[in-house]
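explain this:

___
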Amino acid sequence: MKKFTAIALLSIALISCKKETKTVTKVDPTTGKTISVEVPVVDSTKTVEQPVETMAIKDSSGVYKQTFKLEKGKTYPLTTFQKDVQTMTAPDGKTQSGTSETTDEMTFTVDNFDKGIYDITIDLLGKKNSQNANGKSIVVDTKLAEPKEDQLKMMWKVNKGLVGNKLNMKMTENGKVISITGFEPVYTKVASSVGSVIKDAKQKEAFLKSFKGSFNEKVLKDQFTKNLNLIPAKGAKIGEKWTQTENATPDGKIKLSTNYTIKSVENGVVNIGVSGGIPRKSDKKTQEGVTRSMSSELTQNGTIALDQKTGWVKNQNIAVKTSQSETLSDGKQTQTMKSVSNSTVIVNPAK
């Protein structure tokens, strides 16, 4: 009897553990392919509703679109680090190299969100420049004291005039930068900072005109739009490529193309691959018996990681290589000079 009872209890246990299932189709977030999976059928009368977390970068039938879901009162970092290593090769084969590094620190604090518009304060926190060439190193850091060398004081004073300032940015939930204001106090502070170095009024006026041309609303709007709003408005699927093209020269004859591809979406991170550059360009001219041949090329490769919950950039690591060559020949002698620059651009580097 005990044996039969045990078998009966086991049968009851097996039956009670067996649950009804159904087959559903879904998009694999890693590959972007549609797959079929078995899922348990849930009794709606016993289901407790859980709050659904809205993602900034959402998937609709495999198409991902980017918005921003930023929290009021929260601060988001945007620190940019760039390292350039340039190597020059002379006609005799001798090489000379130098390294330069630049770090720009800023943060974005959400003051308010109303009617689909973010009101954000941009804090310019710090700027650092360093160079290393021919065994000598120099550092210009706004968090350090003013350099003693006269040739470095100007850079330090300009950077010092920049940091500590605040700008106000208004941006839509879709990432469109509507306006950036607060530049006049920055211009005033920079002018005051360089006043002890530039004594001549006309030189000071010319400097400020040049500075305003490189630091203004249009320049920053273009920069932030490029760095923050990456996925096109129509959306993109995993593995799908889209391209952004911009002028590499003022006349627009040379274009820089950047290709983007969503590689994967997993663990709350959208991983985007970056490639492209400027195709090899060659030019040859002969004047007074001397032929001058020039060629140049730029390639870039890397990754960008976006936070799926907020839409904000978590980090970026892109390598850029620029190669240039110039050859002079009179038919008897030929001289070639080469220059190779390897740059790394990192956004929000790990501390």
